[in-house]
Write a structure and sequence with these properties.
11 strands, single chain, mainly beta, 1 helix
């Protein structure tokens, strides 16, 4: 995590310097998100497909490159938690609720954006790098513990987390004249989150997340 913070700080200053150019605005923002899973194989991770979104936190930086009065390109980098509750039936303990936690670096390389007064509407590609993942399980005595093996390693051949995600983002922001902005965005991933290399059929389980953000733009 220290390396992640270092990279974010370096990018912060790089983008801040870039934002001094005409037509380019630098901003920071943070907020909360709710994550869910979609796909026909969700029940292979959570019993009967049961799931509940829990609140995760996000923080990041934005570079708005406004190429004309009504059009521009948005470039963003965010750190985000994805937290949810699923149901596990391990065949030993009665069905129980388990927290499924992940941390990502979310990258939005270029999102075409429409500007009208303070309103911004954008959509574009989404990429993410998984930093870590964990799930709660129970031991033979029924005690909850955090299992980080779901993240996976070089020795794992199946049932581990994919380290990359990719999909699309669509969002809406409103920026006030004082530089404060509020908004929301929806992310849909198209890369299965669990690798199932031991079988011929890949598990179809995908990320969906909704974010509510508040930020500030530097002029």
């Amino acid at each position: 995590m220290k390396n992640t913070y270092t990279i974010c700080i370096m990018l912060f200053f790089i983008l801040k310097i870039s934002a001094q150019q005409d037509g380019i605005t630098f901003g920071i923002s943070g907020g909360i998100n709710w994550t869910s899973l979609t796909g026909r194989d969700v029940d292979s991770l959570s019993n009967d497909g049961s799931q509940k979104s829990l609140i995760g936190q996000s923080i990041g930086i934005t570079l708005d490159n406004k190429t004309s009065k009504y059009f521009g390109l948005k470039h963003e980098l965010f750190y985000s938690q994805r937290i949810m509750s699923i149901k596990i039936d391990d065949g030993i303990n009665p069905e129980f609720s388990s927290k499924f936690k992940r941390q990502y670096i979310d990258i939005f390389p270029v999102s075409p954006t429409l500007y009208y007064k303070g309103l911004q509407v954008y959509t574009g590609p989404y990429l993410a790098v998984l930093l870590n993942a964990s799930i709660q399980r129970k031991d033979a005595d029924g005690n909850l513990y955090t299992d980080k093996s779901i993240y996976g390693s070089g020795e794992a051949s199946s049932n581990y987390s994919q380290k990359m995600d990719a999909g699309f983002v669509a969002g809406l922001n409103y920026e006030f004249k004082n530089g404060i902005n509020i908004g929301g965005r929806f992310i849909r991933g198209f890369v299965p989150i669990i690798e199932n290399a031991n079988t011929k059929q890949q598990l179809k389980i995908y990320n969906e997340s909704f974010f509510v953000m508040i930020g500030y733009s530097f002029y």
